[in-house]
C-alpha cells in the first residue's frame, strides 16, 4: 500500500502539465496548487522507504516484488523513460502491476514459492486488456466530441493510436489471457476449463461496455454500478467454486492425447 501511494504521488506530480487537458483530472491538487517538488519527492522517498522496509521484514520474495513495484512506478512515470507516453508499451507497463500485486498476495500465503508463469501471464494480459479498453473508451468519446487534439496533449501515446488499433489490441490481450488461463487450468486442475466460456463472455461484455458513450471503463471505481457485470462476476465465482470442489472425470479426457475413433 505504501509503495502504491508513492507511485501515485509521483504520477500526479509528473502528470500535472498533461492532466490539465483532461476534463476530470484537471482538478487535481498538483494542478490547482503550486506544490514544492522537494516535498513531493521527499514524500515519495519516505513512502518507498516504509514500503520496502516492511517488505524486507516480510521476506525475500516480498522485497523483490516491492522493488519491482517501485521500478515500475519510475519506468512508467519518470522522464526520459516515461513509458506511459509510448503506444502499447504504456498498456503493458501499467498492467504489470497486476502480476506484481498477485505475487505480493501469494507471498503472504507462501513466501517460499512463486505463482506459476501461466497465471502470471494470464493476469498480466488481463490487466492489459482492461487498460486498452479504457484507452479505447477515452479515444472514442473525445474523438466523437471533436477533442482529439486535447486527448493527444493529455497523453502522447494517443498520437500513435487509432480506434481500430486499440480495438485489435483489446482482442489480442483478451485472447492471450484466455490462452494462458487454459494452460494453467489444464496443468493444475482441468475442471477449471469450464470457466473459459464465462471468462470469454466477460471479456466481450467489458469490451461492449467500453464502447458505450460515457463508459464506466474510463472510471473503474464506478464499475460497481454495472449490475450485469456484477451478475456475470458472481456467476463466474460460483462456477469457480464448483470446479474447485467437484471432480469431473469426463473433462480429464481433454488433457489426454487421444484420437476420436470412428465406428
UniProtKB/TrEMBL annotation:
Main location: membrane
MF-aspect GO terms: transferase activity, transferring alkyl or aryl (other than methyl) groups
Identification of the protein by name: Uncharacterized protein
Originating organism: Desulfoferula mesophila
Record-linked Gene3D superfamilies: UbiA prenyltransferase
Superkingdom classification of source: Bacteria
Membrane topology designation: Multi-pass membrane protein
Gene Ontology cellular component list: membrane
UniProt keyword list: Cell membrane, Membrane, Transmembrane, Transmembrane helix
Membrane-spanning parts: 39-57, 114-133, 164-186, 192-209, 229-246
InterPro entries the record matches: UbiA_prenyltransferase (IPR000537), UbiA_sf (IPR044878)
Pfam families reported in the protein's UniProt record: UbiA (PF01040)
Subcellular location: Membrane
Amino acid at each position: 500500500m505504501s509503495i502504491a501511494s508513492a507511485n501515485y504521488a509521483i504520477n500526479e506530480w509528473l502528470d500535472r502539465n498533461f492532466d490539465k487537458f483532461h476534463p476530470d483530472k484537471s482538478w487535481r491538487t498538483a494542478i490547482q496548487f503550486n506544490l514544492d517538488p522537494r516535498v513531493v519527492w521527499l514524500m515519495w522517498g519516505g513512502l518507498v522507504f516504509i514500503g520496502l522496509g516492511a517488505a524486507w521484514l516480510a521476506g525475500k520474495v516480498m522485497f523483490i516484488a516491492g522493488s519491482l513495484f517501485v521500478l515500475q512506478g519510475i519506468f512508467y512515470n519518470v522522464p526520459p523513460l516515461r513509458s506511459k507516453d509510448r503506444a502499447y508499451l504504456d498498456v503493458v507497463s501499467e498492467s504489470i502491476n497486476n502480476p506484481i500485486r498477485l505475487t505480493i498476495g501469494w507471498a503472504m500465503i507462501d513466501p517460499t514459492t512463486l505463482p506459476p508463469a501461466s497465471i502470471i501471464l494470464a493476469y498480466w494480459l488481463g490487466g492489459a486488456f482492461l487498460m486498452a479498453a479504457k484507452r479505447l473508451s477515452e479515444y472514442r468519446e473525445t474523438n466523437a466530441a471533436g477533442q482529439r487534439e486535447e486527448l493527444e496533449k493529455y497523453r502522447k501515446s494517443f498520437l500513435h493510436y487509432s480506434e481500430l488499433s486499440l480495438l485489435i489490441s483489446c482482442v489480442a490481450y483478451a485472447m492471450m489471457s484466455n490462452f494462458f488461463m487454459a494452460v494453467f487450468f489444464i496443468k493444475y486442475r482441468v475442471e477449471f476449463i469450464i470457466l473459459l466460456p464465462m471468462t470469454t463472455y466477460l471479456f466481450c461484455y467489458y469490451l461492449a461496455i467500453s464502447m458505450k458513450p460515457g463508459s464506466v471503463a474510463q472510471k473503474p471505481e464506478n464499475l460497481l454500478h454495472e449490475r450485469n457485470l456484477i451478475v456475470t462476476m458472481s456467476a463466474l465465482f460460483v462456477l469457480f467454486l464448483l470446479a474447485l470442489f467437484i471432480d469431473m472425470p469426463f473433462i480429464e479426457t481433454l488433457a489426454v492425447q487421444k484420437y476420436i475413433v470412428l465406428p
